[in-house]
Write a structure and sequence with these properties.
Blueprint lengths: L4 E7 L4 E4 L5 E14 L5 E11 H10 L5 E14 L5 E14 L11 E4 L4 E2 L26
GO molecular function: single-stranded DNA binding
Protein name: Single-stranded DNA-binding protein
GO biological process, one term: DNA repair
Length: 149
């Protein structure tokens, strides 16, 4: 069996960081994901998907993400059922994030792409000036002796 969700979209509001009574961090946010097709009026529609992140991932998302930022979320779909205050049964579908990639630069002055996942791995800031594969428009001087094949 497989329960895997991958989404790319924009945050519709700032993430909300809370802590459980046991001190576990939990962050919830909403992601607007554009559909691949347009409606009859030629407008692109979006789905608004609830996302929940736990522990260190929750704190990282809450600290670095803001409304409007583009992110990639990888996780699993979870369906919860509960009774509200009026006694009605409520069914909620949400994605439990296991990995979040920040897809836009933090500011216009510097470029980075960082991500954090629940395995404890963190991709530090990767500036375009440090990228050996960045295209700076200059020809690359490589001799046959430099090639491994």
């Amino acid at each position: 069996m497989l329960n895997r969700v991958v989404l790319i979209g924009r945050l519709t509001r700032d993430p909300e960081l809370r802590y459980t009574p046991n001190g576990v961090a939990v962050t919830s946010f909403n992601l607007a994901v554009n559909r691949r097709f347009t409606n009859q009026q030629g407008e692109r529609e979006a789905d608004f998907i609830d996302i929940v992140a736990w522990r260190q991932l929750a704190e990282t998302v809450a600290n670095y993400m803001k409304k409007g930022r583009q992110v990639a979320v990888e996780g699993r779909l979870q369906i919860r059922k509960f009774e509200n205050q009026e006694g009605r049964r409520i069914k909620v579908a949400e994605v439990v994030a296991e990995n979040v990639q920040f897809l836009e630069p933090r500011s216009s002055s510097g470029s980075y792409n960082q991500g954090y996942d629940n395995s404890g791995g963190f991709d530090s800031n990767r500036s375009s000036s440090n990228d050996p594969f960045a295209d700076d428009g200059k020809p690359i001087d490589i001799s046959d002796d430099d090639l491994p094949f």
